[in-house]
Predict the structure.
Amino acid sequence: MAYYYCVLLDLDGTLLDFDRAEENALEDTLREFELPCDEQAKSLYREINKGLWAAMEQGKIKRDKLLVERFARFCKQLKAPCNPAQMNRYFLQRLAEGAETMPGALEVVRELSEVATLVGATNGVTQVQKQRLELSGLGQYMDEVFVSEQVGYEKPNRRFFDHILKTMGVERRDKVLMVGDSLSADIKGGQNADIATCWCNFINQPAPEGVQPTYTITQLRDLYAIVMEEDELQNVGVKHRKHQS
């Protein structure tokens, strides 16, 4: 059995290429509503959106309000008339079609699923996240997926993780690993829940003070050596292994 037999996996920026999905969805939305679609406009949206998600992680704004508020603030900055709720609905529809994966994601998830229970653990909109997961091919290797909208709590809230572990029947937190690219949501959240954490530092960012992940990786394949026992490492790439969970 794997050293970590329950692996919680963030989706956006960890397994799914959110930047590409967001770029395509945003461009489609701006064109649909006849708004500027240049780099300045897109950067403005990302700045507003990032700030609101950070506020949500701190408990300062609810997710439902955030989704519409980002477009309201965006249009206000552009001094352009718009229907923020309508824009958000259109954007989420386009976003749900963004199923591009991060390098190596499909291979790594397939291999890990042979030795551990894999659980998607993501903030966001349930329908959007689950549709992207299925379209990408990653969903078939997940034992369960938990989205903050459905759970009722957002990462890094400990209750988000407590809900997952209780639902999955996990008793030993020392055998659980949270994997994600966000220090504020994934790593801080894992620490709040007293479980090991693995920071996906794919762009080699300097590690800030105050939040120290248990592990740091620069590519998803590095997870093999963290999750698997020695005999399991030797079987990487061998088809039709028995799933142990």
Summary: Residues 39-57 form the longest helix (19 residues). DSSP finds eleven helices and six strands in the chain.
